[in-house]
Amino acid sequence: IKTMNDANKLNESLEEFQEGSTVILRIKDSFAMPSAVIGNLLKKVEEGINIRLEVSSDILYEVLDDLNLIDKLNVKKI
After folding, report:
1. SS3 for 10?
2. What are phi and psi of 16, to 5 degrees?
3. What is the CA radius of gyration of the chain?
4. What per-residue string of b and e applies to 17-53 under the rule 16 or more CB within 10 Å gives b?
5. How many CA atoms within 13 Å lie on the side-chain side of 49?
6. Phi and psi (nearest 5°) for 66?
7. Cα–Cα distance, 27 to 43 (Å, whole number)
8. pTM of the model
9. Distance (Å, rounded) from C-alpha 26 to C-alpha 53?
10. DSSP 29
11. How far apart are the C-alpha atoms of 19 and 32, rounded to whole Å?
12. Contact between 64 and 70 (Cβ < 8 Å)
């Protein structure tokens, strides 16, 4: 997720999922995540969509941990 265009595409893709769906997002090249994406992921969790976020960056994992999102977004270090 390097540009706002990337973030917008991701958010648009998430609109396709319905309650009960499971979404696995693998973030391999990014050490940051725009707040708009985080907000949308949290909204989807509230709508009953199961989110699993797999991140390769230690920095991104630590940021998500600092924001207390590890459990909410089911974050795994890959």
Report:
1. helix
2. -75, -20
3. 12
4. beeeeebebebeebeebbeebbebbeebbeeebebeb
5. 19
6. -60, -30
7. 19
8. 0.86
9. 6
10. S
11. 27
12. yes
- At 60, the amino acid letter reads L
Cβ neighbours of residue 41 under 8 Å, at least 6 residues apart?
14, 25, 51, 53, 73
Q: What are phi and psi of 45, to 5 degrees?
A: -60, -45
Q: Token pair for residue 55?
A: 């991140």
Q: Which of 39, 28, 27, 48 is nearest to 67 (CA)?
A: 39
Q: What one-character DSSP code corresponds to residue 51?
A: E
For the chain, 78 residues long, the average pLDDT of each consecutive 10-residue run is 84 90 91 89 95 95 96 96
What is the rounded CA–CA span in Å between residue 41 and residue 36? 9
The pLDDT of residue 55 is: 96
